[in-house]
Amino acid sequence: MANPLKCDVCEKPATVHLTQIVNNKVHKVDLCEECAQAKGVTDPSGFSLADLLLKASLNPETGASGVSCEQCGFTQNDFKKHGRFGCPACYDSFKGMLDPMLDNMHKGTAHTGKVPSRALERKSLYDRLNKLELNLNDAVKAENYEEAARCRDEINQVKQSVGQTHAR
Amino acid sequence: MTIASLIATPSELTDATSSKTAIVLMTRVRLARNLSGKSFPGWAEKAERAAVLGACREAVSAAPQMKRALSVSIDELTELERMILVERHLISRELSGSKGGAGVMISKDQAFSVMINEEDHLRIQVLRSGFQLKKAWNAINDLDSDLEERLDYAFSPTLGYLTACPTNLGTGMRASAMMHLPALVISNQMEKVVRAVNQLGMVVRGLFGEGSDASGSIFQISNQTTLGESEEEIIKRLGSVLDSIIEHEVNARAKLLEADSNKLFDKIGRAYGILQNSHLLSSSEAMNLLSLLRLGVDLHVFPDTARSLIDRLLIEAQPGHLQHVQKGEIEPTQRDLLRATRLRAEFANVGGPTFTINGQN
Asked: Which residues pair with B33 in a beta bridge?
């Protein structure tokens, strides 16, 4: 928010200045008359400050633009336009822009809730499998058959437990 | 199961009311989930959306909670059917207007609904009548854990469940309660309540979520933030906010009765008169009248048996449900006529009010 006199959404002169204290954190939003109406700020039945803050943190000055997500091709400009990300990997690709935003938006910046333990277990098995298969290839190439046999046995073992997690 | 049979069968929302649901009509917990390595629905190509829809349907239909569930694509539904699902809180307005490749699965008892390719790949929700936050969380947690056996969720150990919009990041959970707060509205305290609730990190919205109006004095209160707190902590915090809103509403009712009971009874009595005799009723007027009658039941002006009728009509007087009975779309003015006719018939047999202040415990 380089210039507090500009509307956070459309950059027209701001006339509505909103301060809200959520979870002991002060949040400020400056809006022009039109955007304030459009966002329902004047409507007591409620509006989403989170959405406003999201848009507000998308001022052109924040972060380097031109970054795009390797996985899905989503760009920072796309995010400015939609306010939504392209794919889960975007959270890594746009980390620099995201971190200050989350601080403003949420109670904390680290997840402390439920963990999909079954899915993570499955993922770690797959990761291990991939690594073993690479090792096996290397061992075969190096004609290290003892090592290759060991890898193969372990792969079979892991495959069995993957099957079990799926069957459960 | 078809949409028609779904509308005809009793549901948690339309048929489970009791005096326990006096101020909190309904509790809802929704979880946003996405599949790892797939673009979010808003960014995905058509083929990818279709693939995600297929994969999610398969995984969801294998869950015991979703046995013999209704499963439909949004583009197979008529405008009217979509409207009805929105009015029953089974799909969101956003899903109802979505492009291809979106679907919904609804459990037989209409307690669970799973939206596929809304803003996130999966939006799984559970509805419970009355104030049952913990029960609702346990129910949706079980369904989620079951789905996780078959679906690889996009999850980061530090950021939690990854969602299309960063405002849902972390737990991906939105827990909410639908509250009937007529006394706070009548005594002009709602603005104050909204402000206080906001400061506690909770949001107040109208009956149908973001941007909808609060006709009938029905509000949705939900958590604003999803990251940095566990699900149980959010539920607990929301629960205590709801408790204090209930207390304020109860106090406001007592104060209205104490200060000028005639004024309050006049409103309730007139509402009854209009519902029994009017010939044109708009949706929002009907909501406000039903809301006053509902308050009347709480104050023992009407017998407790009238509550289930009123709660059912709060849903069935909505445009979609009304037109469904008529088997087709009709003009808004015709709708007002139809609505008044329906309500006149329903209230013809509801006994007249008894106004005693002592009636209120």
From this structure: B122
Q: Does A95 touch chain B (CB under 8 A)?
A: no
B1-170 CATH: 3.30.590.10
8 Å CB contact of B162 and A44: no
Global pTM value: 0.81
The answer to whether the Cβ–Cβ distance between B152 and A45 falls below 8 Å is: no
Q: Is B239 in a helix, a strand, or coil?
A: helix
Beta strands in chain B (DSSP E): 24-33, 70-73, 103-106, 112-116, 122-129, 155-156, 160-161, 173-180, 202-205, 218-223
Every domain of chain A and the residues it spans: 1-56, 61-113, 117-167
Determine the residue of chain A that is closest to B43 in CA distance.
A86
Chain B, 276 to 335: residues with Cβ < 8 Å from chain A are none
- Kindly give the confidence (pLDDT) of every residue in chain B, 361 residues in length, as a single tens digit, with 9 standing for 90 and above: 577 777 777 666 665 555 566 899 999 999 999 999 999 999 999 999 999 999 999 999 999 999 999 999 999 999 999 999 999 999 998 899 887 899 999 999 899 999 999 999 999 999 998 999 999 999 999 999 999 999 999 999 899 999 999 999 999 999 999 999 999 999 999 989 998 999 898 999 877 655 556 689 999 999 999 999 999 999 999 999 999 999 999 999 999 999 989 999 999 999 999 999 999 999 889 999 999 999 999 999 999 889 989 999 999 998 899 888 887 778 888 899 999 999 999 999 898 899 886 544 4
Contacts of B155 in chain A (CB under 8 A): 115-116, 119-120
Q: Looking at chain B, which residues constitute the CATH 3.30.590.10 domain(s)?
A: 1-170
What ipTM does this complex have?
Answer: 0.82
CATH of A1-56, one of 1.20.144, 1.10.20, 3.30.60, 1.25.40: 3.30.60
Question: Does the beta carbon of B119 lie under 8 angstroms from any beta carbon of chain A?
Answer: yes
